[in-house]
Please model this.
Amino acid sequence: MNITLRMAWRNLWRHKRRTWLTVGAMIFSNLLLVFMISLQFGSYRMMIDNTLQSYIGHMQIQREGYNDNPKIRNSINAIIPLANDVRKKINSNRVAARGVAFAMASSEQRSFGLQIVGVEPEFEVNVSSLPGLINKGKYFSHINAKEIIIGSILARNLRVSVGDELTLLGGGRDGSFAAGVVFVTGIFDSGIASVDRSMAQLPMGYFQSLFGMGSHGHSIVVNAKDLTRVSVLQNKLTDIIKNNNKLVVLNWEILQPGLKQAIQADMASAWFMYAVLIVLVAFSVLNTQLMSVLERTREFGTMMALGAKPSRLGRLVITETFMMSTIGLLVGAALGYVLTYYLTIVGFSYPGMEEMAARFNLPDRMYPSISLLSIFLGPGIVFVFSLLASLYPALRLFFLQPVSAMKAV
Model:
């Protein structure tokens, strides 16, 4: 074994308690970083899935320009056959066609403007959590039914309940006057006031008939099995529609840019807290190595008098830190992995989470996301900062005078 490595290993255990305290701080911080970063990535995945599955979906097929200019005429022809073709080619039922229009809804007492969304009842339940949030009544019976589901706030404003009639007035795609009478079959409570106040759903067949859509619609919502498969699925969808240059596939980052910005802001604030932890560990290493160098001043002075160069002694100090940091990294990352892996199986919950999840039709447990990045990102940064912290004690040796050092008490 290299003499520098042997000396570094021997020097580490001169003061076992001090070494283990420093290594223990590294292990604890690395374990904590692995757990927190994995939980953070898992919470982001959960937040993205829950937000997108409520309505937007992981991606949508739209007519080019519709996302920026959502006019009723900016539509897709033969949308239901296209949705069936997509389902067949990607072998998934997480695909649903939609149409969007605006209308005035009137009860016997009041009138309110709202957004009407035409949906395929059979497949909408696979891409949206909204059907599962109905707390009164039921979902649509078939695609051509003259039925409507509305939000709880809109139902209260219109003073209607399940079984009551609503009159819809709006403008059709062909410029005609759209008017129809529908029955309220369900009332949902999403917990989002803007949705519960101003959005309703109609079966796609009746929606197309009411608004003069013909076979047209506005989007095909597609959900992937997992967030990591979105890019692969997006490429498949792009190949499916490549013969129609008027259609585009938009992923959730384009459809919901505010969600990505919220994640970036949260990540920035979280890394501020991680940075404080990392700096504290780095100062602990600095303190340990500085004490070690000061205690060995006479020893280093003697070695320099015998011909040892300051650069070699500096490498010795850095090698000691390297060994401590390696132990801290490997043990801390291993313990963090074991803890995080266990939580990926049983999940992680905090008080009140189950009640909130039941209300919003969401999962009641959070699951960390394990990857090489989440395991080694935090410990790797601790490792680097620990080595940087050892530079100051190592550089002090370049200013050490052998004669005065050997006289040190």
Observations:
- The mean pLDDT is 88.
- The longest strand covers residues 95-106.
- The radius of gyration is 32 Å.
- Residues 231 and 284 are 43 Å apart (CA to CA).
